[in-house]
Specification:
Layout lengths: L1 H12 L4 H12 L7 E6 L5 E7 L6 E3 L5 E3 L3 E4 L13 H5 L5 E4 L16 H19 L4 E6 L1 H12 L4 E7 L17 H10 L6 H5 L4 H8 L2 H5 L8 H10 L5 H7 L1 E2 L3 E2 L16 E6 L7 H9 L5 E6 L6 H4 L1 H12 L2 H12 L1
Parallel strand pairs: 5-6, 5-7, 7-8, 8-11, 11-12
Antiparallel strand pairs: 1-2, 2-6, 3-4, 9-10
Helix pairs in contact: 2-10, 4-5, 8-10
């Protein structure tokens, strides 16, 4: 009862509303000059997924060296924890520029998508994320897709690949969270004061302090994540991005709660993906993209590459980029993703699917 009262009180305490979220998203998407659609896609249980769509109704074909036309496989983007569709603003125009269908989704429980109650069990929460993506695919009528996920989106994308490998032509994991298991050693690297704060904050969601700060929340975010202003400085001279991130995360916690239920201290996954990678279809091409300055351990990608010696498993490192590689070095990232989309292994998997 107490947690319900607190959650009911927080919206009035925080300087946010759903209409402010909509306005902040409109501002962050304004630099996109190519035509796109946006709207809610209904899925099961009365929920919906907020979706941006590019080149949806056009004849998206490319021409091979032999002059034969091939339908381009749609590219689907899943953001990371605490993110939303707006953070792809430096990438969407480039991805859509070749006429390929491109979709950016607010994952279930985030952004402008439904914010349902997730299961408390980690696997139940994971399954809800996966099923919402499959429901969305069916609703959009996509037969196949190239699935790209960043951070938590990479974890969800991999979980989807485990259950629906036949729907994917390529799995692209950008700085994915949740692959490595928690080390079986005492974490001496964690200072005592951080452990103490962690113990106090454990009952709360990861972004709870942002909401508990109330009117000071926007300022707190700008101070703690001033790096976002630099990452998007070529597009926005002001705090547009920080404003968007605040309104995305100051709403009712849903996907955030699911993420908490899927973790153990300090941010490790309850069910690491590295333990399940051998169950992924060996014919599914995979590419890992890391930033050279990121704190995410790229060893998982290398380990998985060794686990799949006869499969297409590639690792790309974007120099000068951190965890938000798509914003830090957007031109290099965009080109890398376009190269993946046009890789011949996708055509090979298309042929394999048609034979099967």
């Amino acid at each position: 009862m107490r947690s319900f009262c607190i959650s009911s009180w927080l919206p009035s305490w925080c300087p946010t509303s759903f209409s402010q979220l909509i306005k902040s998203e409109d501002r962050i998407l304004k630099p996109i000059k190519v035509r796109f659609t946006q709207g809610h896609v209904p899925i099961s249980n009365g929920n919906y997924i907020w979706t941006l769509g590019f080149n949806e109704t056009e004849s998206a074909y490319d021409i091979s060296a032999s002059g034969v036309q091939h339908l381009q496989v749609p590219l689907v983007l899943l953001h990371g924890f605490g993110g939303g569709v707006g953070l792809w603003v430096k990438n969407l125009s480039a991805f859509a520029g070749e006429g390929r269908p491109v979709y950016a989704l607010d994952m279930l429980g985030f952004g402008r998508s439904s914010r349902p109650t997730f299961g408390r069990d980690a696997m139940d929460a994971e399954e809800q994320f996966v099923q919402s993506l499959e429901d969305w695919r069916k609703a959009e009528g996509l037969e196949h897709m190239i699935l790209l996920g960043h951070d938590l989106g990479g974890y969800v994308s991999t979980a989807y690949a485990l259950k629906y490998p036949q729907r994917l032509k390529h799995l692209v994991l950008v700085e994915p969270w949740g692959f490595a298991a928690r080390p079986h050693v005492q974490e001496h690297w964690v200072p005592i004061w951080i452990k103490a704060i962690g113990a106090v904050m454990n009952p709360f969601n990861p972004l709870g302090p942002l909401r508990l700060a109330g009117p000071l929340g926007p300022l707190l975010l700008q101070l703690l994540r001033s790096d976002f202003k630099q990452k998007y400085a070529s597009v926005f001279p002001d705090d547009t991005v920080a404003d968007y991130i605040y309104h995305v995360n100051a709403q009712t916690a849903s996907g955030e709660t699911a993420f908490k239920n899927m973790t153990i201290p300090y941010g490790w996954p309850q069910h690491p993906m590295i333990d399940r990678m051998e169950m992924i279809s060996p014919s599914l091409p995979m590419t890992f993209i890391y930033g050279s300055r990121s704190r995410i351990d790229g060893q998982s990608g290398k380990a998985i590459q060794e686990m799949r010696p006869n499969s297409h498993t590639k690792i790309i490192v974007i120099h000068g980029a951190g965890h938000y590689v798509f914003a830090d070095q957007s031109d290099d990232f965009n080109q890398a993703v376009l190269n993946i989309c046009n890789d011949k292994c996708i055509e090979e998997r298309k042929h394999e699917s048609s034979v099967n």
